[in-house]
Amino acid sequence: MMTRVEIINDFLAINVKPGTTIQDVVEAAGSALPFGCRNGECGTCVVEIVQGMEFLSEINAKEIKVIKEVCAGLNTQNLRLSCQMKIERPNGVVRIKY
Ligand code: FES
């Protein structure tokens, strides 16, 4: 009942239960993925979901607003804020690139 989270840049992978936040994953795995406000306001933690968007919580209003501001002109379809996401479903693979 775990989902595997891979942080591509750091060559890290960790298996976690649904409900685990990506902040928890980053801290547990020892990733260098940067955070700023940790409240969905600064955009420091923006990442690309290379695989497994369907295993994550739905994108929220803060993410939509900040990603639009920080990544204007880019294809934002697979972008998320790490501080706002959590693993929602088991038996998946989520691949994250920052
Ligand atoms: S750390 Fe500021 S938006 Fe995620």
Description:
- By secondary structure, the chain is of the alpha+beta class.
- It has one domain: Ubiquitin-like (UB roll) (Roll).
- It has two helices and five strands, in the order E-E-H-E-H-E-E.
- The protein has helices at residues 22-29, 61-70, and strands at residues 3-7, 12-16, 46-51, 79-81, 93-97.
- A five-stranded mixed β-sheet has the order 2-1-5-3-4.
- A hairpin with a 4-residue loop joins strand 1 and strand 2 (12-16).
- The chain is globular.
- The model has no long low-confidence stretch (mean pLDDT 96).
- It binds FE2/S2 (inorganic) cluster (FES).
- The site of FE2/S2 (inorganic) cluster has 13 residues, from loops.
List keywords for this structure.
18% helix; alpha+beta; single chain; binds FE2/S2 (inorganic) cluster; 98 residues
Tell me roughly what share of residues is in helical segments.
Answer: 10-25%
Radius of gyration: 12 Å
CATH class: Alpha Beta
Specify the structural class. Answer: alpha+beta
Spans of at least 5 consecutive residues with low confidence: none
Q: How much of the sequence is in beta strands?
A: 15-25%
Q: What is the assigned CATH homologous superfamily? A: Beta-grasp domain
Number of helices: 2
Strand order of the largest sheet: 2-1-5-3-4
Report the major sheet: 5 strands, mixed
The pLDDT mean sits at: 96
Q: What ligands can be seen in this structure? A: FE2/S2 (inorganic) cluster
What CATH calls the topology is Ubiquitin-like (UB roll)
- Assembly status: single chain
Run of helices and strands: EEHEHEE
